[in-house]
Specification:
alpha/beta, Rossmann fold, about 25% strand, Glycosyltransferase subfamily 4-like N-terminal domain-containing protein
Length: about 190
Amino acid sequence: MKIGMMCLWNAANGPSIHAELVGRAWVKLGHQLKIFSAQKHPDARPTFQEDEDFVIRHFSVDEVIPFTRATSFDPSPLLNEKYEVFVAQNVERLTAEKLLELFPQIKKKAVTVQVVHEGKAPEDPLYYKFDWDAIVCFDQRYKDYLVKSFPAERIHMISYPYHTLKLGDKQKARKKLGLPQAEKIV
């Protein structure tokens, strides 16, 4: 499958980490991925990681308050790249105005999916103008505010990916690692 995902990438924040976990898993499964990401964004703390070949940086954002708007935006990657599914992560922090202008063209060629990271209902009125084919949220807190603005049948809860808790013997682990037995370790 060919997947296009608009998100922050290699950016040391929650939505970027989620996008990277999911995106890299898709690549391992054999899917073709294109990432549409920011050259500059206030939420994108640098990680000094080198971007993969499938990352296209084509927009910039200087401010996210009161609303996120692009200071520069090249629409050609979104229009010219081939993908069957389009995923947008954390839309409140993306260039909603520019994305909304292109959205009818994106919907003609791909199924559209929004992954919600916003902890509360966004104030930006543009957030509610998108006609997503599916909306993914992590738990009921998100769904509670989403159903007020989007059709309930399009909203799906999928738990955030996490590593299962492994209980063990703390003293044995400290000894094995050569750490002090009684001191606090941050």
